[in-house]
Amino acid sequence: MRKSAEVVIIGGGVIGTAIAYNLARQGCTDIVVLEKEYLASGSTGRCGAGVRQQWGTEMNLRMSIASVKMFETMNEDLDYDGDIEFKQGGYLLLAYTEAGWRQFNENVALQKSFGLDVRLCTPAEARQIVPHLNTEGLIGATFNQTDGHCNPFHVTDAYAKAAKRLGVEICTYTEVTGIRRDKNRVVGVETNKGFIATEKVVNAAGGYSSVIAEMAGITIPTYPERHQILVTEPVAPLQNPMVMSFHHHIYCQQTPHGSFIMGLGDPTEQPGFNTRATWQFLEEMSQKITWLLPPLKGIRVVRQWAGLYNMTPDRTPILGSVPELLGYQMAVGFSGHGFMLAPMTGLLLSQSILGLPTSLPIEKMDLGRFERGELFNEPSVV
Amino acid sequence: MHDRDQDIIVCRCEDLTLADIRALIQKGYRTLDEIRRISRCGMGPCQGRTCRALVQRELQASGINIKDQVPGVFRPPTKPVTLGSIAEGAGRRSDHA
Questions:
Q1: Do A285 and A323 contact (CB within 8 A), yes or no?
Q2: pLDDT averaged per 10 residues in sequence order, chain A, 382 residues
Q3: Whether B97 contacts chain A with CB within 8 A
Q4: Which end of chain B has less neighbouring CB within 10 Å, N or C?
Q5: What CATH code is assigned to A87-146+223-311?
Q6: Are the beta carbons of A300 and B91 separated by less than 8 Å?
Q7: Least CA distance to A39: which residue of chain B?
Q8: Domains, in order of start, for chain B
Q9: H or E element at residue A309
Q10: Which of A159, A287, A299 to mutate to test the interface with B (most CBs of B within 10 A)?
């Protein structure tokens, strides 16, 4: 591990590696990425692997649309020796209440204004898209074909390999224990393997973002929240789109590999670092999904796990610098959607760190918005 | 690499050969967890019950001391169960409640 670096990035998930690659690509290669376990071992590797653009607020929309464009050519752009397994089978979002349907109508109007080719569907039209969908109680749906799935391990691997080729040092099994500051400037990062002098540190610590911010003396309103997922055995292609219901707090998609990945958000989940799986999840997930998508009854569950969403009060990430500490930047609080927003986040943070004009107005997503009361309040989160 | 290694299956669920595993170790995936996540080795219906020990042996043979590594987490359910059986069982239990 080097003794000093121009930039130290804390977190070897998809966000940290995407930022490292984007910095290096623009000539800033004296970078260390610190990861306390192995790459994608935290929230990235535990996520539902979905890629969605159907958001209800401006910045999530703009970031996800730009990110999808980047996923489309990522294998080539990063000269990856594997495959990121990007599949654009669409997302079908289901509405079961009048309020939900009104929200979908508003979302679609906003989404179209940013150029998304999304459409409102009747229950019959939804069934044409997913023929085995149980439409009982369904009011309507929205569908966007260019949403889909991507492999989080491979995307992180692709960014990490491309960054390394450009000279970035990635230190796995290296835990950050402190951030050293001199008054209002960052001067270095302490780890269990030694000290690295740096004037620029990036908090990309996912579920642990508030712990890292605390080390820098910054208070941020993010908190970890457990979300559970299961995966089935791989079966022949049966379902192209992701099917998602905010009313039932569930989502379910078949990956190109053939397995189904499905998850359930528990509205009563308390903040905390617990990532243990529960039998209650397994039962509730099975009951809800076999009601909604009956042919899944015969498919076997092979594994269940849990990971941390890093939540913010308005379910929108916090990006960029803070006025009270020079050299501190963050890309945190993705509220369950860091993987799908990672490509654009990598670019925006690199621009912010290098002091360049940013491709999107990331100042809208700063920490200060909570004090100013300029919240996004993203409605579309499972 | 010996040709023979391409004919030896290590992970039956995901069709990974000894040659595949040795190539991954060579590329720098040096723990069981890293190999599993990049290749799906051990992530199929048997959940690593066959390949886990074989991969660990290969790691050890390539000079990595596996006693320093976490052995990976065994995740539920213990064996594959259909979504229908779980849903039915859950329904029956709540009927009795």
A1: no
A2: 96 98 98 98 97 97 98 98 97 97 97 98 98 98 98 98 98 98 98 98 98 98 98 97 97 97 95 96 98 98 97 97 98 98 98 98 97 93 87
A3: no
A4: C
A5: 3.30.9.10
A6: no
A7: B34
A8: 3-96 (1.10.10.1100)
A9: strand A300-311
A10: A287
